[in-house]
Amino acid sequence: MHMTQLQLGDQAPNFTAQTSDNKPFHLHDHLKDDNRFHLLVFFRGEWCPVCNEQLQDLQENLHVFKELNTHVMAISTDQPENLQKLKENHHISFPVLHDEKEEALKAFGVYTHEDTLYEDHGHHGEPGVFLIDPEKRILHISVQTGPFGRPSAEDLRKTIKYIQKTL
């Protein structure tokens, strides 16, 4: 399967996804008048315990990201009703987007898990984290080929702070 290979400094690709209240979300429209940094977090799905922990960690540290002028957004190919359940169960206040057509997944070059590899909830996207600056440039990329090894909120705080200081 051919994947997009984004490089640091590339413009973040546009994509359309659905918000939790089923409205279309276009990344470039969202970024147009927003001078914050954006942390775009791809996760496997509501059924994934490691994903639940990661999103909970981000939620608990939201104040830290706000201080760093960074808006957190999560995105998954999981079903909208599952994503809504996840938001409610973990009191997630940041946007959780539904990437039904895998548009964002493909545009950002996030790995997909195929059923043919090993038995694990069928076809889904793997984790990835991208930091996008106010000029829509990608300044940090972290993609995984499986559920583990993703950066913690603390790792991301240090990375964002370092990048902002050196820009």
TrEMBL record:
Gene Ontology molecular-function annotations: peroxidase activity
Catalytic-site annotation from UniProt: C51 (cysteine sulfenic acid (-soh) intermediate)
Domain of life: Bacteria
Keywords in alphabetical order: Antioxidant, Disulfide bond, Oxidoreductase, Peroxidase, Redox-active center
A Pfam family the protein falls into: AhpC-TSA
Region of interest (Disordered), residue spans: 1-21
TM region positions: none
SUPFAM superfamilies cross-referenced by the UniProt entry: Thioredoxin-like
Nucleotide-binding as UniProt keyword: no
Domain Thioredoxin: 6-165
Protein name according to UniProt: Peroxiredoxin
Species, as recorded: Fictibacillus macauensis ZFHKF-1
Highest classification ranks of the organism: Bacteria, Bacillati, Bacillota, Bacilli, Bacillales
